[in-house]
């Protein structure tokens, strides 16, 4: 991601009330970006939706198939981390 892309994203999050920016007093070129209460609620809601989507995706699989899928995805993830 480029700096302008990140800045634009943070601008929109701030405009919509999900984050606040604070200039660091010791180094005014640095900012701290914090989630607001609305931002925290949005993160919690998104996490819940993601969890439900994951459950829906594997609902047609047996427990054994779900376990095997989990093992295979873990192997893929570990391979990508190398």
UniProtKB/TrEMBL annotation:
Location of the HTH marR-type domain: 1-78
Entry-linked InterPro entries: HTH_MarR-typ, WH-like_DNA-bd_sf, WH_DNA-bd_sf
Keywords on record: DNA-binding, Transcription, Transcription regulation
Keyword Disulfide bond: no
Origin superkingdom: Bacteria
Name under which the protein is recorded: HTH marR-type domain-containing protein
Species whose genome carries this gene: Rhodococcus pseudokoreensis
């Amino acid at each position: 991601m480029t700096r302008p892309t990140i800045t634009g994203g943070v601008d929109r999050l701030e405009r919509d009330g999900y984050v606040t920016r604070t200039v660091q007093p010791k180094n005014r070129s640095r900012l701290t970006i914090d989630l607001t209460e609305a931002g925290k609620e949005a993160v919690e809601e998104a996490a819940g939706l993601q969890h439900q989507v994951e459950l829906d995706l594997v609902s047609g699989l047996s427990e054994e198939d779900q376990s095997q899928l989990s093992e295979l995805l873990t192997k893929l993830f570990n391979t990508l981390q190398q």
